[in-house]
Write a structure and sequence with these properties.
By secondary structure, this protein is α/β, with parallel strands linked by helices. It is 31% helix and 27% strand. The chain has a nine-stranded mixed beta sheet with strand order 3-2-1-4-7-9-8-10-11, sandwiched between helices. A seven-stranded mixed beta sheet has the order 13-14-12-15-18-17-16. The longest helix is centred in the N-terminal third of the chain and has 17 residues. It holds the Pfam family Thump_like.
Length: 393
């Protein structure tokens, strides 16, 4: 770790050029010949990535950044803050520490945090940054986390793991056994050191596939940020054999939407109906969860079709997702499309519909944007329809 990058003049230069194009800066002469130009450019690029994602790091003096890829792959502060709300206790060990954003927020909830990182350079950077952030209850352990677990030889309240896909696993179906560390293989050993494990995975992991590889899963948290699913969190507790609770969260600027249900719990069948005054589209976390029947039942809404995953009601209800007022419902045919939508401007969504958004736009010359929202879908009578709506939220 080269601390010369912390020279006050260099730090001022980095801050002053945070909004400049790296490709343009790269053509300039290095004003600091004692430090590699590429190192300074890397700091500018990584710090720029942190501006919105990691505002505390961005606003703290003398932070050293690893590669921009590390910043892109790390948790955002908003998702890390939510993650920390899940845990409590005296001690936590993070077996895959990375840039340490999660551990910073864990340290606000847990007395002592151990940050394990196999990359020595990254471990040193994170140790330095924790000192700048005054996170005094986090200890950094460079090296293999399994060896660190053995050396420390203590019972932890929580083990946290964010396994990464091995390079040779690219292109395959996402399985936990193809990641490092191999959590399914090491699970029994981990439970010798704790009674509670929290595993972070990418949204790409199929929930049923994860459940087939893991045991003692008590809760699965699906975390979306501004309606984009960012991560799945698998909460495991030793000897737990009960039903799995699904907890969905969509973190928005003004509020947080949440919806919970029990996986595979028997419920009454959903009700179906034709479009009424309002239609509802679940947020991306609920869509990932597969709780399509549960959300409709909970909010007492009718589904338009078994496979459409759009809901409707005569009166407005609060809902975790987008809500629209139906201005018109037309059959999908040439006459109606020419009358209402051809050569117009509209936002288009397809649900259980045979054509793509791109093809629909091309066929009917519909421009993107505007205040009109159209759902191309299938109703309960298997008719292809278009809902022409205005957005409420």
């Amino acid at each position: 770790m080269d601390l010369t990058i912390l020279n006050p003049e260099i730090q001022s230069f980095i801050k002053a050029n945070i909004d400049k194009r790296i490709s343009t800066l790269a053509l300039q002469k290095n004003p600091f010949p004692d430090v590699e130009w590429i190192s300074i450019l890397n700091q500018i690029e990584a710090k720029a990535k942190a501006k919105d994602k990691l505002p505390i790091w961005f606003d703290t003096k003398n932070i050293i950044y690893p590669s921009k890829i590390s910043i892109e792959q790390t948790s955002s502060e908003k998702t890390a803050l939510h993650k920390a709300s899940i845990i409590a206790g005296e001690s936590l060990i993070d077996l895959t520490g990375g840039f340490g954003v999660d551990d910073y927020y864990f340290s606000k909830k847990v007395k002592t945090v151990a940050h394990c990182e196999i990359n020595l350079e990254l471990s040193n950077i994170v140790k330095h940054n924790f000192e700048q952030l005054e996170a005094k209850n986090i200890t950094c352990y460079p090296g293999d986390s399994t060896s660190t677990l053995e050396t420390l030889n203590q019972k932890w309240d929580w083990i946290y793991i964010d396994p990464s896909r091995r390079n040779d696993a690219k292109g395959k179906v996402f399985l936990l056994k193809d990641c490092l560390p191999n959590v399914p293989e090491n699970l029994d050993y981990y439970f010798e050191n704790t009674n509670a494990i929290l595993i972070k995975t990418a949204p790409l992991l199929d929930i049923s596939a994860g459940l087939s590889e893991l045991k003692h899963v008590k809760k699965i948290h699906i975390i979306a940020l501004e309606n984009e699913v960012k991560e799945l969190l698998w909460e495991l507790h030793s000897n737990y054999t009960g039903k799995v609770q699904i907890k969905t969260v969509n973190i928005l600027k003004e509020k947080t939407e949440s919806f919970d249900f029990i996986l595979n719990e028997e419920t009454k069948p959903p009700t179906y109906g034709l479009p009424q005054k309002y239609v509802y589209e679940p947020n991306s976390a609920i869509m990932k969860s597969g709780g399509f029947d549960q959300v409709g039942l909970f909010y007492n809404l009718d589904k338009l079709h078994k496979h459409s995953h759009i809901y409707t009601s005569a009166s407005l209800v609060p809902f975790p997702g987008r809500v629209f007022e139906v201005e018109n419902c037309i059959p999908y045919n040439k006459t109606e499309m020419k009358t209402y939508l051809q050569n117009k401007k509209a936002n288009i969504t397809t649900r259980n519909f045979q054509d793509t958004v791109e093809n629909i736009r091309k066929k009917w010359k519909i421009k993107e944007g505007g205040d009109t929202y159209c759902f191309f879908t299938t109703d309960t009578n298997n008719n292809k329809i278009v809902l022409i709506c205005t957005k409420i939220k």
